[in-house]
Every structure is written in C-alpha cells, then in structure tokens.
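Record 1 of the preview.
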Amino acid sequence: MAKRLFDLIVAALALVLLSPVLLAVAAVVKLDSPGPIFFRQQRVGRFGVSFRIHKFRTMRHQPHETEALPITVGDDARITRSGRWLRRTRIDELPQLIDVLAGSMSLVGPRPEVPRYVALYPPALRARALAVRPGITDPASLEFVDEADLLARAADPEREYVEVILPRKVLRAAEYAERATLASDLGVLLRTLRVLAGAR
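->
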C-alpha cells in the first residue's frame, strides 16, 4: 500500500513538474521524423497480464514491420537523430509515468518484457518474477545499463540476450520481488539518478 501511494504521488508530481520538458521532447520527436510521438508496445505485467507500455518514439516509424528484433543492438540503424539522445539520457522512458499512474507499472520493479521473451522464463522463476508490478527502473537495468553495446559485440545478439542476459534479468526480478522494500526502492531510484546524471 505504501509503495503504491509513493508511486502515485511521485509520478503525479513528476508529470506536472516535467510537463514543459515532456512537451518540448514531444515536439522534437514529431519534427525529427514522420510518425507518432509515442512508441507503444505490448509487454507482460504483474501476474502475466499484458499492457501497452508508453515511450517517446526513438526509431523510424515502420508500421508494417512485424518481424523486427525486439532488442536494440548497438548503434541500431533504425534509431532517429533525436532518438540517440533520448536513449542515452533515458528521457524516452519518461512517458511510463503515465503507466505508473494507470497502475500497470511502478517506479521501481523488474523491467517488463515482451511476450516473446517471457515465454522463455524458467518455470521455477516465472511466477516470482511476475509477482510484482514492472518498473521504470530496477537493479537489473542498472547492471545492464550498457546492454545495447554488449549485444553489439555478440556474434548472435538475440542468442546472447536469450542465453546470457535474460536469465540474469529473470533471476534479478525474482530476487527483487522477494526482498524489495520502500527503502530499497529509494536506493534504486537514487542510483538511477546518479547514472542519468553521468549520461552525456
């Protein structure tokens, strides 16, 4: 209950205080390349319930591209000019504050995956990893802050993600679900802010 109240208060305040920034970014995204301002994608949330996540669009809009790899590898050619900066600073994630208010997400919690990868979760960890609301940031996000670069160095990026990175993320998600407290969430938020402060 305290976690949800904290999420609601912080998300609402952040949306109000950051509204000039959000409007400016929305304008930049719209002017930079054709397509919608927001990127929406189906993700798997708490207890396996699907929802549509919100991000600022950072890639060229390709509405008919159904086989696109759902991971970003290095300097992906699909990324727009503004998208490179938005991704580096993580500003593209700010619209997820809307998802926090809606109750689909939390400020801190395991990052929500696409169904394609959730289907690969080890059965022993699946229920534990999906026992809490997914979040905008979490310990695994900080551990793999350079994930796109790691995948770019792999001979087979998706195989590297599925066999190396994803199992680690699922384990971290299960650990978070079992041990998280409001105090530990505050610690993750502070660590995230420090990482963002160092982004150029």
